[in-house]
Design a protein that fits this description.
Elements: H1 2-6, E1 18-20, E2 27-29, E3 37-42, H2 49-60, H3 62-67, E4 70-76, H4 80-93, E5 108-110, H5 115-119, E6 134-139, E7 145-151, H6 159-175, E8 189-190, H7 197-204, E9 211-215, E10 218-221, H8 225-231
Parallel strand pairs: 3-4, 4-5
Antiparallel strand pairs: 1-2, 3-6, 6-7, 8-10, 9-10
């Protein structure tokens, strides 16, 4: 049983499929969202303060994620009626850090059996036997897991980083580059290692002079914010 609880998909794996009841009706995940990026995330419990602050932030940023062709899907081990009551309370009663009247329109999964949480390794016995930790799975349009973030129960997520990761993954795919530490749109990007097909292509296209090389294995080039943003969500 412990092995089942601790099992988790890995980066590069196909996202495990499941069917579930949600606040937006039944879903088949990830098949219902084919062609979109998906962020599947878990929270420990409804009617808790850290989770409330997170859901308000997700709700506030929902249009930003939609513009990035990304479907948000939440999960906790609470039941559907608890989810509905909690989300109604958030919309009608909670004002926090300038956020109010936040309506959550993305699906929130009922997982009272913990089947989905176990499938995705969201139950971490050293943290809690009965609540999901704050997991975040980034899943691409081909339903492959690309990044996994885990936070403990007491620490709220960094939403600026969640969006940065999503933009970074799309940029790496769109331009066949890698991204250095603390990369933001408009910063230089890393071109493939010298001797690789990426550098050879750059030379063929006359772009070698645009590269800055610190050594044979470490070369960068400029990629403007406008170029990055022109392909986001596509």
């Amino acid at each position: 049983m412990e092995n089942q609880v601790n099992a988790m998909p890995r980066i590069g794996d196909k996202a495990p499929s499941f069917s579930a009841v949600t606040t937006q009706g039944p879903i088949n995940f990830p098949e219902d969202f084919k062609g979109k990026w998906k962020i599947l995330f878990s929270h420990p419990a409804d009617f808790t303060p850290v989770c409330t602050s997170e859901f308000m932030t997700f709700g506030k940023m929902a249009d930003e994620f939609e513009a990035l062709n990304t479907q948000l899907v939440g999960l906790s081990v609470d039941g559907l009626y608890s989810h509905i009551a909690w989300l109604r309370t958030i919309k009608d009663k909670i004002e926090y850090k300038g956020m109010k009247n936040i309506e959550i329109k993305f699906p929130l999964i009922e997982d009272i059996t913990m089947n989905v949480a176990r499938l995705y390794g969201m139950i971490q016995p050293g943290e809690s036997q009965t609540s999901a930790v704050r997991a975040v799975f980034f899943i691409d349009p081909q339903d492959k897991i690309r990044t996994i973030l885990y936070y403990p129960l007491a620490l709220g997520r960094n939403f600026d980083e969640i969006k940065r990761v999503l933009i970074g993954l799309q940029t790496a795919d769109n331009f066949s580059v890698a991204l250095p530490a603390d990369w933001r749109p408009g910063d230089e990007v890393i071109v493939p290692t010298a001797g690789s097909c990426g550098v050879a292509k750059a030379r063929m296209n006359g772009e070698e002079g645009k590269m800055k090389c610190y050594d044979w294995f470490f070369c960068t080039k400029e990629l403007s914010r406008e170029e990055v943003e022109s392909k986001l969500g596509k």
